[in-house]
Design brief:
Rossmann fold, 269 residues, 6-stranded mixed beta sheet, alpha/beta, 10 helices
Length: 269
Amino acid sequence: MCRPHDSPTVFYRQRLSNSFPHRSSGENVLAVDDLCIDAGRSRIVRHVSFEIPAGRRLGLLGASGSGKSMIAAALVGALPPGITCTGRIVVDGHDVAGVPTPRRPHTARPAMVFQDSATALNPMVTVGRQLRTPDASALLERVGLRDTERILASHPLELSGGQRQRVCIAVALARESPLVIADEPTTALDVLSQARVLDALREVASLLLITHDIAVAAQLCDHLMVLDSGRIVESGSTTAILDTPESDLVVRMLDRARAADPFRQLVAR
C-alpha cells in the first residue's frame, strides 16, 4: 500500500519548453507526485513525479527491471505483497494512493492492457461474453478487427496473438476509463501485428504506454519519460528526445532501434 511521503520531495527537472504544459488538476487524468516504491529496505522507484493531461499519450521507457511495471502496479492499486509505496497518485481527480482497485471510484480505475493477452483474457469464456456491451461489434471494428461475429463467438486461444491483444484494447475501451495503461503491448508480436496493435491504441484518448522499445513509443506518444534504476533520467516531448537526446541511455536506445531496423524512421506522431 502507499503511505504519505515521509522524505523531501525530489523532482526531476524536465526540459521546460518541451514538457506537458501545466494543467489544473481537473484537466489531468493522472497526476503522480513524489512516488517511491520499496521492497523492504530496497528502493525500486525513486521520487517519480509526472502528469498526463486528458487526451495525451505518455511513453514510459526503460529496460527490464527499471521499475516501469511496478509504477503501473502502483497506479492501478495492484502492488505485490511486501511492496510499499509513498507519495500521491491522483486519477481523474481522486487521490487513490494505496487504495485497491475494488475500493476505488469507477472513474479512478485505469484500464490495463497487459503484455500477455493469453492470460489477460479468460480462456474459457467467449470474447463476446468478456466484452459484455451492446456495442461489442463496433468496438472490435474500432480496433481493426473486421470478422466481428466470428471473433465474438471465439474463445481467446482460438485467435492469434495480435487479435487477442486488440480484443484486450477493445475491453479497455469498453470500460470507458479516463486512462488506459498498456504494459509492453507489442512484445513478442510480429511486425504486422505490432502495427495493428499500435493502430488500435490510437483509439485510446489518454494513454500511458510502458515499453522498452523507443521505436514503438515514438510512433504513438506525444511525450516520453525515461526510467533507469527507478529514476527519471530524461523527460520531454517525443520530438525533442528523438532529435536531441540528453542521456546516454536514450542514445543507446536509439542506436539499438536503428541497428535493429536501419530502414525504419523514428518519427514522433
